[in-house]
Amino acid sequence: MKLLILDRDGVINEDSDAYIKTLDEWIPIPSSITAIARLSQAGWTVAVATNQSGIARGYYDMATLESMHARLRQLVAEQGGEVGLIVHCPHGPDDGCDCRKPKPGMLQQIAAHYATELAGIWFVGDSSGDLQAALAVDCQPVLVKTGKGERTLAKPLPPGTLVFDDLAAVADQLLS
Ligand SMILES: O=P(O)(O)OC[C@@H](O)[C@H]1O[C@@H](OP(=O)(O)O)[C@@H](O)[C@@H](O)[C@@H]1O
Ligand SMILES: [Mg+2]
Ligand SMILES: [Zn+2]
């Protein structure tokens, strides 16, 4: 199946070092919304795997997180596309969960949901933890320069990492 997995903050929407704590702070990257719509209209399933330690930290609750994801689905639907499964890790760095990137648990959850293998599936992120999670399950690590991408690019990347300016450029490549 044509499955693409995305990180959320810094790829789909703007990120902040102060976390994305409210719906108003969830600011979509317009070209990313269009990219998701274009991909899904072309038969791609676009899933999301996002760390949301702000839940564990008490910065925001599940209702707020779900409101952000409802807004994402609405914006993509307005452009004729749809968003697939969105998986989040609500845990903190010290909780020892299996889902927080760089662990690959969320990627494995997505693969199980769609009854597909992960090998070679592109996982698009802006942080090194995203790239490490991809490598852990033989996904293709893809770095975008939006969000924390430029910071991530300043450090050595895992061999084989593909680099694009933004999600729109990733979509252009996949749809070419
Ligand atoms: O990029 P994704 O995975 O969609 O989400 C990242 C967010 O959960 C937050 O992750 C935090 O990392 P810590 O969780 O505090 O290590 C910080 O990097 C925040 O700036 C960022 O907004
Ligand atoms: Mg991110
Ligand atoms: Zn977790």
UniProtKB/TrEMBL annotation:
It catalyses: D-glycero-beta-D-manno-heptose 1,7-bisphosphate + H2O = D-glycero-beta-D-manno-heptose 1-phosphate + phosphate. Monomer. Coiled coil: none annotated. Belongs to the gmhB family. It comes from Ectopseudomonas alcaliphila. The record marks 100 as: Contributes to substrate recognition. Its cofactor is Mg(2+); Zn(2+). GO terms for biological process: carbohydrate metabolic process. Its EC number is 3.1.3.-. It is found in: Cytoplasm. This is D,D-heptose 1,7-bisphosphate phosphatase. Its main location: cytoplasm. It is an enzyme of class 3 (hydrolase). The gene is gmhB.
